[in-house]
DNA sequence: ACCGAAGTGGGACAGTTGTCCCAGTCGGTT
DNA sequence: AACCGACTGGGACAACTGTCCCACTTCGGT
């Protein structure tokens, strides 16, 4: 096996772990399964990480960062706010459809974090980032559409995140594309009503 | 130990299992943990159930039935449809607040079911029941308010379920009551717009 | 060329898990 | 009272898990 510095090995193991979790779930993501996916020996695992928990914690915190651009709206001038918001939601939906297992993995990681008091902050931080990202998108969208939010953007953003989560969960269960699009439309509707569209 | 027929033992074990899952998560719900919670010996478990999987499957299918009445709206005549729907959502939210671990357990069971192809139908059936229940409530609500849905009720119901899920997930993470109420209000808004309020 | 540190491999360990077995005991029917 | 099948308890097993250890190899700086 070629020699790899510990830092790179950590990254490689986290990538492998995410793949395993996506494919088979967190419960199946044993040290051996992760190491096999990464093509390493078992000892390398505990050379790079003190424990499996340490890897999972880092998996949770790092993976959120990559989610970033998915929800960012197309900023096409001339569109109404409603169109922009709905397009953003539909874009997220396409992202979900293209890699359902990934979103399922994220959900699973969140739920895992919720289980222990010391990990709960990880989930909270994850969501704080989502909300911040959503808030930025919403502000941008309003600007383009020449509208302004009549409710604090953070509040609108939180509602958007909630709607997105609901969309994700229900679609993962019934895989009903039309229904999901209806959810997106309804969500866009509700959100737009929190703005003053001059 | 007093003698208990197998059928009762199955019920007792399922109750115990739900308690364990609520408290510590599905991963911690080992045969031994469940049996300890139920105050039985380990052998009784495999006398009542062929395997742990069999118990979990039955846990998923039976537990949904008890959820039923939580979302049913107060049917106070004279209220607008918007008020009725929002009240229903807030009632669900109070239910969630009063026993968060239970909803967390339901979420976990759903995700578990999503993981294997042969269990996926269990999750789908679970959601079908949710949607049916929601549809009945929505129909009743519209009747009371003297309104009518302009979109098929099942479609409205699916959106309601999605919104409810989103509300649940986000509140479980950040425990922000005000934000959750804002989600409920926005959801009621979106849903009401799918009706013709004469 | 050499040497300490960084990285590697294989094997081992103890703890936990699902499942099973078997000898026993109870309760109701005959 | 006898008996048969339903139920019980304890212990065992093999598989799997996270973690550790130790001998070994390779690399970068001297």
From TrEMBL, chains A, B:
Feature: DNA-binding region: 30-49
Keyword terms, alphabetized: DNA-binding, Repressor, Transcription, Transcription regulation
Superkingdom of this protein's organism: Bacteria
Annotated ranges, domain HTH tetR-type: 7-67
Residues in coiled coil: none
Keyword presence, Transcription: yes
This protein's record includes keyword Nucleus: no
Name this polypeptide is given: TetR/AcrR family transcriptional regulator
